[in-house]
Amino acid sequence: MAQSQLILGIESSCDETGVALVRAPEGGGVPTLLAHALHSQIDMHQAYGGVVPELASRDHIRRVLPLTEAVLAEARCGLADVDVVAYTRGPGLAGALLVGAGVACALGAALDRPVLGVHHLEGHLLSPFLSADPPEFPFVALLVSGGHTQLMRVDGVGRYELLGETIDDAAGEAFDKSAKLMGLGYPGGPALSRLAEQGDAAAFKLPRPLLNSGNLDFSFAGLKTAVLTQAKKLGDQLEARKADLAASTQAAIVDVLVKKTLAALEGAGLRRVVVAGGVGANRLLRAQLDAACARRGVRVHYPELHLCTDNGAMIAMAAAMRLQAGREAPNREYAFDVKPRWPLDALA
Which residues contact 120 (CB under 8 A, 6 or more apart)? Predict the structure, then answer.
């Protein structure tokens, strides 16, 4: 990019509506977050025990423009100041993605500004660059969210090599499904983690699937089954032992994530790791990974806690970094499509 640009980012892939404004400096350098706003649909979906796609889409429609106005007001900018409008193109819920894509392309057309579709996981991957301690390339990335668990080698923007991924449930799904089996409600993952702080992680011997598989793939479906089996064995005692079961479940998930990440670092010959995605906010994961990496002289980078969930800031940042790296050219063709399934390593 020849000059400083303001990039508006819109995220609507699932159950959070996020909007943000990022300034990409002239001549490169880390882009700066000027303002962001986020609306979570947790309260709406709690009654159903999970995300209802149609309700999610309708709520995005209601929220996206007021959030955009709030972000512009906080940044003291007008719509006319925006140079590029970025949006989440995928992966995610098709209807939810279409809301963000439609609004972004409509704004672009109305303002005669270019638009740019962004990969949701690339947004998570690059979100630590918004932190006070941004990483440097190359690094190993652990992407852990509700629907994805992947290890990537990252040599630069758009230069991603998949090292390992989940073959069934992701880590976030293991948290959520185990929590549901314990009757902890929605969203289950954070509830399980809070309850685990009161329990004994060694109380139950739960499996660590694929821990010694010799590769970097993950599998958490078997752990969920083991939690169900243990809950049934406890029967009437489940309520009294629920904290212990939660702690044991969390310990099993975190143990696998940490050891596979360390194996990925060793295999790649790198000494820097980035953790991104909603599960990256987990306290036990951060504590154990920090401790293990400190012993090995490895640097660990995380997004700021408030940017671990889906948000517009990561979309605007990813768009800015792709433009700076020459990986993408925004366009003024306002016909759009979305990619509910979109492998990250397919990006150029």
Answer: 11, 13, 88, 89, 90, 91, 92, 310, 315, 342
